[in-house]
Specification:
single chain
Length: about 300
């Protein structure tokens, strides 16, 4: 379970909303998992700075107190820009901190048969290569690059890739530690297959819904296994890890576990778990999705 962070905490929940502290700024945002009644009217919280008000299928931010256009928050020694954005987003998913820590631990330990290499070295072929698909603003990218990985960051949204670059700069990462690609993730993976490119690890956070190249509807439940199968083809023969994250409601961790076991075979081990966040409310924990990870040992 993710505990509260110095720069982030969930203050209270109720009536479809969560009240959050992001550094010095307090936001109130919708959360579909909060189906219980709140103890108080969160919109009347005395130090509330901005409220994302639901309207029809969307909504808009209502700014209550003057706040910066964007500001930074820290998770351990990692720093990220946050900003109230469209459709309630801030450009960061704090519940992923547990996965960032896993990534840092595995990458930091290195590949078993190359334990003492300088992974920061320019052009060193022994540098751990990580592919981050549907990479958004780069939380996992920054986590991996900060411990020496060479990361290929792929997302179809140009503005999100630009924010990932800003996060990399904020963390003072070497410019050549991350390769940024704006592309459809599946198309990119298939081209990498043809080029014979391989990676030591893959991270992927596919959306619940999307549109294919010809406008066809893409649903995670219908396409995840096929997608993971294609992605697994760009893994090295002795990979480090394969991490899948999902925010699709109803997709249980066991599903991710089964997919990884079927694709990776009998080697390594699989761990699957619900992502959740502790709150400042007594005994209330907020569910935030599911993750599954295959590791080599």
């Amino acid at each position: 379970m993710n505990r509260t962070n110095n720069d982030y905490s969930i203050i209270a929940t109720g009536d479809g909303y969560k009240l959050e502290r992001w550094g010095e700024v307090t936001l109130l945002r919708p959360d579909p998992q909060v189906i219980w009644t709140g103890k108080t009217d969160l919109a009347k919280y005395p130090r509330l700075d901005a409220h994302y008000v639901k309207e029809g299928g969307g909504g808009k931010w209502r700014i209550i107190n003057k706040i910066p256009e964007q500001w930074t928050v820290s998770f351990g020694n990692l720093k990220f820009w946050v900003k109230p954005m469209g459709f309630k987003h801030t450009g960061l998913f704090p519940e992923q901190a547990v996965n960032w820590e896993k990534i840092r631990k595995i990458v930091g330990a290195g590949v078993p048969d190359r334990p003492n290499v300088d992974r920061q070295a320019d052009g060193d072929q022994s540098q751990i290569k990580v592919l981050n698909l549907f990479a958004y603003t780069g939380g996992a990218t920054i986590a991996a690059a900060a411990v020496g990985a060479k990361v290929t960051h792929v997302d179809s949204a140009t503005n999100m890739v630009e924010r990932a670059k800003q996060n990399a700069t904020l963390n003072k990462l070497p410019p050549d530690s991350i390769r940024y690609i704006v592309d459809d993730c599946l198309k990119f993976v298939k081209r990498e297959q043809k080029r014979g490119k391989k990676y030591d690890a893959v991270i992927m956070d596919p959306p619940s819904y999307g549109r294919g190249p010809n406008g066809e509807l893409w649903k995670l439940e219908d396409n995840l296994f096929a997608l993971c199968t294609e992605v697994s083809k760009v893994l090295e023969d002795k990979p480090l890890f394969f991490l899948i994250n999902s925010y699709t409601t109803g997709l249980q961790p066991t599903v991710l576990s089964n997919i990884l076991r079927l694709i990776m075979g009998d080697r390594g081990k699989v761990e699957a778990y619900e992502l959740n966040m502790a709150t400042e409310e007594k005994r209330i924990v907020l569910p935030c999705g599911a993750s599954g990870i295959w590791t080599s040992e």
